[in-house]
């Protein structure tokens, strides 16, 4: 009788070890809320005020640190999260170089990472542990390429950041030359903190392109756009999904009227048909965000925070069946569960992850918008 009692108690204790009541899930978030990337980092951070405080019935804690838009700081934050805070996953950052630096820590420590920016190709070790929320640059810039083709654009000038993001946008647009029927004729670069790009813009204009693509993000992306307009460029100026926020318009003012960019549906949910797959989620989040942070404050970046948390929330119940939060086994189980997330409807698109695809978005994750009367509006 005693043996049976002890066996029953042992079995019950083992079950409690897997999913103890109240076990807290901890997520470490590194964002550049100061520095040149702050116009993106602040909205990313704001979103966490609106996100769930439980996952799979368990409480969740978000530890958010400022990396000052510096890759070294982002890596330090990621390492602190893992070694000191014993997090179950890391998220960040709002700049590609910073996110790449964090992915190194994720790969070294076997910690799932939710990247809040697109990523360049990663080593197998990093790629195994990194899941990417934003749309790929190829997916988004293909919408730009289609629009240029329809307008008969044959030559394209390029000016972008002198870092990984600038490379990603350049590589995406040049990969679409053949299908789009155009040729990229310049590859000028500028720093995120640069206040003048006169020399680069003069070289772009000298090449006499039919259109220009800017590979920047946030408010700094307005700098070359304004310079092009001031120097008389009359062709269309295209951007990317890293540009679509209010800070870009505030920085460029009237000069950025007509700017065209691809983005997710949450920027213009009211203008989408009811049949659009993400409309209800996009509209609900946008309304809650503007109710909290003011009319016109909507942006694509806060939506990425929402969608990253949604992916984790979809994976946590499965991971909880195998291990408890705060352990290496739980981190491994969470990674495995993320690879099998299906039909998660976010603000930007519908996510279907797999071992071979850690992004899982398709054409449902993009629309084209333009600046019209000081607002981002759907192109029709």
Task: Report on this structure.
With 380 residues, this protein is α/β, with parallel strands linked by helices. The protein folds into 2 domains: 2-135 and 299-361, Response regulator (Rossmann fold, 3-Layer(aba) Sandwich), CATH 3.40.50.2300; 137-263, 3-Layer(aba) Sandwich (Rossmann fold). 43% of the residues lie in helices and 17% in strands. The protein contains 14 helices and 16 strands. It has helices at 2-18, 38-47, 71-83, 96-109, 124-129, 137-150, 164-175, 177-180, 198-206, 222-230, 246-252, 279-293, 300-320, 328-338; strands spanning 25-31, 54-55, 58-66, 89-92, 113-115, 130-132, 155-161, 183-184, 188-190, 211-215, 237-238, 260-263, 344-345, 350-351, 367-372, 375-378. The strands form 4 sheets. It has a 6-stranded mixed β-sheet with strand order 2-3-1-4-5-6, with helices on both faces. Strands 7, 8, 9, 10 and 11 form a 5-stranded parallel β-sheet that branches. The chain has a 3-stranded antiparallel β-sheet with strand order 12-15-16. Strand 15 (367-372) and strand 16 form a beta hairpin. It is globular, with a radius of gyration of 22 Å. The N and C termini lie far apart (76 Å).
> In CATH, what is the class of the largest domain?
Alpha Beta
The ordered H/E elements are HEHEEHEHEHEHEHHEEHEHEHEHHHEEEE
Low-pLDDT segments, ≥5 res = 1-19
The helix content, as a percent range, equals 40-55%
Morphology call: globular
What do the pLDDT scores average to?
A: 93
Report the span from N to C terminus. 76 Å
How large a portion of the residues is in β-strands, by DSSP E? 15-25%
Number of helices: 14
Total domain units: 2
The chain-level structural class is alpha/beta
Q: How are strands sequenced across the largest beta sheet?
A: 2-3-1-4-5-6
